[in-house]
Design brief:
The chain is mostly loops. It is built from two helices and three strands; from the N terminus they run ββαβα.
């Protein structure tokens, strides 16, 4: 099951699990659309292809909650 990380790890933009617009690699590194475009759809961490992340219907959040750890803040030491 996808972790559904809540933010772009390059710019910190919010990426809600129930909305489209997030891009992930096979390791679930997560980026917003503008950052994925700027990265030429290649993950800067592993070099893998960035693909559209599927959305998760909000009705499933209680049983399968999206991730809450913000990678952007963690990467910046926050």
């Amino acid at each position: 099951m996808l972790e559904m990380r809540p933010d772009c790890e390059r710019c910190g933009a919010d990426l809600p699990a129930q909305q489209p617009g997030a891009f992930i690699c096979s390791f679930e590194c997560t980026f917003c659309s503008p950052c994925a475009d700027a990265l030429d759809e290649r993950c800067p961490n592993c070099g893998g292809e960035l693909m559209d992340r599927p959305s998760r219907a909000e009705k499933h959040h209680a049983k399968h909650p999206p991730g809450t750890l913000r990678k952007y803040l963690a990467a910046k030491g926050g």
